[in-house]
Amino acid sequence: MTIDDVLVIGGGPAGLMAAHELVHTSDKKVRLLEADPVYFGGISRTQNYKGFHFDIGGHRFFSKSKEIEAIWKKILPNDLMTRPRLSRIYYNRKFFSYPLRAFEALFNLGIWESTLCMISHVKWRLFPVRQPKSFADWVSNAFGYRLFSIFFKTYTEKVWGMSTDELSADWAAQRIKGLSLTRAIMASVMKSLGQKSSIKTLTETFTYPRLGPGMMWHAAADQIRAKGGVIETDRRAIRFVRDDKQGVWAVTARDGQGQEHVYYAREVISTAPMRDVIQAIQPAMETAKAASKLRYRDFVTVALLMNKPAPFKDNWIYIHDPSVLVGRIQNFAAWSPDMVPSKQEGCLGLEYFCFEGDTFWTTEDKKLVALAKEELGKLGLVDVSKVFDGCVVRQPKAYPVYDDAYHDTVAAIKKELGERYPSFQLAGRNGLHKYDNQDHAMMTALLVARNVIAGKHLYDPWSVNEDAEYHEECAEAKAPEGAQP
Ligand SMILES: Cc1cc2nc3c(=O)[nH]c(=O)nc-3n(C[C@H](O)[C@H](O)[C@H](O)COP(=O)(O)OP(=O)(O)OC[C@H]3O[C@@H](n4cnc5c(N)ncnc54)[C@H](O)[C@@H]3O)c2cc1C
């Protein structure tokens, strides 16, 4: 029986980062299990269809952490590009800069609507909801109800599939903390006067791998293997049994054929979704039942291939039009020209938010491609006769849901796991049930890997993100940046 020092579950940014750190800074014997038979990168993977590459949502590489930026450069020294960023909101057949430019937004809305927005803003500043609990209240307090209902409500409800009255204020606070309309207007004024805002916010370029984020994560996997780490794909961990006498975890993983494989390790780092993992630990956790109630929002991309480039330069466009289901449109050639086979071609990713197993999720691919094409035509954004093919990618558990119960559930799980099974650590976005970007997911993994190396829990992966609000800071000058997932 082979016993590894550390078994890492998941080959997304977090799992790969944990394994990468362990093989590069210790002599631990490391094995990583990834459920997908082909792709590394998890939600940050890049899929390939007939020579067209596309992400699950576009993935900007942007971090406040110098350490994370250095790791990206080390993993992919020759293929990181600096790309211009353009993303707009499409509302009422008009484009609005995104993040919002206050004056342009008010101008586009027209004098009457703008006046109503400003009155509503003043009213909410004077009479805010004290201790806002819902997303709707939190954002209305910041911007006024009217601006909230135009620029936040429709899109946010499409994303989460629930009313913004039900969605927790925590989520708004995490994503758009520090935002204020006044500061957004000030930044707009300074911009139009040609002055630089004092707020370090205008991220008008971003880093992106030449062939999409998956390129980064496949390179990371190669480096782990080169340093002696073992990676097995097509292995979905389904059971974690603790043998305290032996000080060993027996982990069962199932492959695509249904065959089970058992692995033994002294420690486990799991980046798989918390809901599944906590219920799969034996002897059973007391918090297993609460964990079963954690919820996720799921995501479908319909990639439409075109024999003509898209007629706009946006990397992505937010669709605030309530008459179509599509929430956002990615223009992959604008992310990197190498994402499409030639300059004469284009690939648009129409993004739909749904729940795994619902009518949308289970609709057959052919129908989804037809629907996407129809909606694209209805929006009038491109000539749909140039669309020659399409493909559908389903991403379960794209977003951990912040509902009323999640906070207490996660706190209870954290406590029980830490006290009862300290050799089983969680990291990553769904691993911690935290709405993290790649860099934060990587950082949580670095911390738990360092705990393993130190032989004690020096670092708390849950602390990452709470004081690293750079995406939100970036939003300040530009209004509702952070609100758009
Ligand atoms: C639409 C969208 C857009 C985004 N845009 C950005 C962006 O622009 N920039 C950014 O930095 N971040 C972005 N993110 C966030 C980013 O995708 C995540 O932060 C990141 O992928 C999280 O990494 P992770 O390793 O924690 O989890 P995941 O990416 O979910 O990876 C988990 C991995 O574990 C595997 N796995 C799951 N269960 C098991 C199991 N039981 N056994 C074995 N393997 C298992 C999965 O197959 C997967 O490969 C975006 C997310 C979404 C949904």
What does this structure look like?
The chain has 18 helices and 19 strands. With 485 residues, it is an alpha/beta fold. The chain folds into 3 domains: 191 residues, FAD/NAD(P)-binding domain (3-Layer(bba) Sandwich); 107 residues, no CATH class; 105 residues, Polyamine Oxidase, Chain A, domain 2. The strands form 4 sheets. Strands 1, 2, 9, 10, 11, 12, 13 and 19 form an 8-stranded mixed sheet that branches. Helix 1 packs parallel to helix 17, helix 5 packs antiparallel against helix 6 and helix 5 crosses helix 7. It is globular, with a radius of gyration of 23 Å. The two termini are 45 Å apart. The C terminus is likely disordered. Bound molecules: flavin-adenine dinucleotide (FAD). The site of flavin-adenine dinucleotide (FAD) has 35 residues, from helix 1, strand 10, strand 18, helix 16 and helix 17.
List the helices and strands and how they pair.
Layout: E1 3-9, H1 13-25, E2 30-33, E3 46-49, E4 52-55, H2 66-75, E5 80-84, E6 87-91, E7 94-98, H3 102-109, H4 111-126, H5 135-143, H6 145-160, H7 169-176, H8 181-192, E8 205-209, H9 213-226, E9 230-232, E10 236-243, E11 248-254, E12 260-270, H10 274-279, E13 281-282, H11 288-291, E14 296-306, E15 316-319, E16 328-331, H12 332-335, E17 346-354, H13 359-362, H14 365-379, E18 387-400, H15 406-420, E19 424-426, H16 429-432, H17 438-454, H18 470-476
Parallel strand pairs: 1-2, 1-12, 2-9, 6-15, 10-13, 12-19
Antiparallel strand pairs: 3-4, 5-8, 6-7, 10-11, 11-12, 14-17, 14-18, 15-16, 16-17
Helix pairs in contact: 1-9, 1-17, 3-4, 4-5, 5-6, 5-7
